[in-house]
Amino acid sequence: MTETIHHRICPLCEACCGLEIKVRDGQVASIRGHNADVFSAGYICPKGVALKDLHEDPDRLRTPLIKRDGVHVPATWTEAFAEIERRLPPLMAVHGRDATAIVVGNPAAHKIGLLTYFPKLARALGTKNVFSASTLDQMPKQLASGLMFGHWLSVALPDIARTDLLLVIGANPLASNGSMWTVPDFKGKAKALQARGGRLVVIDPRRTETAALADAHHFIRPGADVFLLAALVNTLFDEKLVRLGAVAEWVNGVDEVGLALAPFTPEAVTERCAIPAQTIRQLARELASTPRAAVYARIGTCTQTYGTLASWLVDVLNTLTGHLDAPGGVLFAKSAAFSANATGKSGVGKGVVTGRHFARVSGAPEVMGELPITCLVEEIETPGNGKVRALITVGTNPVLSSPNGPRLAQALDSLDFMVSMDIYLNETTRHADVILPGVSPLEELHYDVAFPQLSWRNHARYSPPVLPGAADQPHEWQTLLKLAAIAQGQGADVDANALDDAQFSEDAKRQFGDGAQKVIEATQGLRGPQRGLDVALRAGPYGDGFGTNPGGLTLARVMDSNAFGGIDLGELKPRLPEMLRTPSGRVELAPPSLLLDLQRAVADLNAPVPALVIIGRRDVRSNNSWMHNLPVLAKGPMRCTALVHPLDAQRLKLMDGAMAHIATETSSGPRSIEAQVQISDEMMPGVVSLPHGWGHNLAGTQLNLAAQRPGANLNALLDDQLRDPMSGNAVLGGVEITMRALA
Ligand code: SF4
């Protein structure tokens, strides 16, 4: 018997916990938290343990599939690439590059190969039809941060280790361990905050797990966060509580904000928010008078029609209470690699722009190089020049995770050609003509590209593969390069390694000019994302500068730290003005596009409030649509239930545990689902909560365990035409429903 111990960062959610994995005779024997991990200190949630189930899942695809006569049959990699070459380039030659579209999903954010090589495929396709899960999730936060601080990933993060007041709005970090804020063991950190006399306050239409722990919880009507936040800021001006603290000399637009938010008095928004005006004023005073305080808001504030405005106002509030860039307030991480706000010219930059191109059918603007994912369906359906005829999906399941999935499923069947890279034959990939299996996380190296830029503490951690992959399984970055080569007419027989070498040389010349040769020589022996990572670390803020900063970080040093839990780079520190990348070199508190968009909210202040609306829900044992086939997570009570307040249940004659019919009116007609009722006073009256990512009862999938308890698809109820116009983010919550009991 041979037994080995491995240390691996968990790739299943944004918390990035360090795991200790015991392997016995080539099989995973156990998974637990790695106590020595410098970032997560042994914390693990039930999903981390499920990596074993994921690796061993008999339904996980291990060989390519080609659809022949409507049935997916196993194929070799050579056959699969040949089929793509036979069908994709001719279609592009006839119909043009915009006849292709590409969609990338959330798992790509957790895989360095996918994240750093996906752009190469998108560029090779040359289409403007690039979509991702970002417009189902966090695009409003990224856009607001970009407009204020100059880069899409310059997100202000609560300094939870030192704050004395944390206000959480529309987020449930106790279940998620942070989102756009990487904070493993949020519960432990929140309890430590309370133990030192601090307060946790939660605003949410549900008494979430986080709210249950909080010192105070206030219900709010779904979608009303923008009004609450505007009224909090309004109170600061009204009661002369504005103070900028140490960042005062770097902030533009304070007076403009005060003027623009004048209509949003607490008294004017109280009915819209269902929060007393006095409570709003009191909260504003508390934030202003607590020296160390932070406001954090997430998914509930993003997935609504005012997502960007709400995200912006969170940081306006942090700034005007003197907590921006202040210890105990909100700070910016300084990531060791891949961070645009820690490299290049300091303190100034190009900022962010949107609308460099527009969706053909809706005219929605591009944001961060993408179009809103809810535009995909009409781009496939609508005839004309530029109609999407071929689609590539990478680790994504929009049939379940995007609004109006049934309409999208129908549209996918009308495509001329579809390729999916995925680990499952799921509700979306079942429509593909060719499926290329992804790699089990345990078979690939790992370094988080994005999340160290969002982390509660600075760190650098690398994980080597835990188990060897199949001999014929290419790395995912190699698959992406092959697809790129096919799209560019270089053929399916191209050598991905040679292509990578050539592209790396070109990139090095662009980035380092005369120093490129030194970089190429210094990274000899490396290839793919490992080589890119070595360059990013060495050229990064803690790097060895390829010899100019001896003792600085290199990939070798970070790799050597794996068994010891990685390298701790210390607590977050004030970074203004050095981290700014706005053209002005200042914090833009009043971006003109947001002030203009505020007029929508002014007009909507007195809009009627629907009697019953639906929102989503996060569960610690689930993450979107793809973890319902794993035994360790699927066991226990059914989690896809519609939570209903007792008063609503009584009014609608709903019984606990019985099935109910839930219906909406959308722009493309009525929609309905059937879901199991769970009566709970944790809901705000008038609000129903159902988690998303369920509905595993569609034909043609291979998710046998998930299909046994399929649940209901919340997104089937939602309207693909409802978006935040600034960011293109879909509206996933606060949607009006009707509900009735089923016999
Ligand atoms: S919280 Fe759970 S799923 Fe997320 S990284 Fe940690 S162990 Fe993995």
The CATH topology of one domain comes to: Dimethylsulfoxide Reductase, domain 2
Number of strands: 29
Q: Which radius of gyration do the C-alpha atoms yield?
A: 25 Å
Strand order across the largest sheet? 5-4-19-18-17-6-7
| Mean pLDDT over the full residue set | 97
Form type: globular
Bound molecules: iron/sulfur cluster
Largest beta-sheet characterization? 7 strands, mixed
Full CATH superfamily name of one domain:
Dimethylsulfoxide Reductase, domain 2
Distance between the termini: 57 Å
Helix content: 25-40%
Q: Class of one domain, according to the CATH hierarchy?
A: Alpha Beta
Can you walk me through this structure?
The protein has 743 residues and is of the alpha/beta class. Among the domains are: 139-332 and 338-345 and 576-603, Dimethylsulfoxide Reductase, domain 2 (3-Layer(aba) Sandwich); 610-741, Beta Barrel (Barwin-like endoglucanases), CATH 2.40.40.20. 31% of the residues lie in helices and 17% in strands. The chain has a seven-stranded mixed sheet, with helices on one face. Strands 11-10-9-13 form a four-stranded parallel sheet, with helices on both faces. It has a four-stranded mixed sheet with strand order 24-26-25-29.
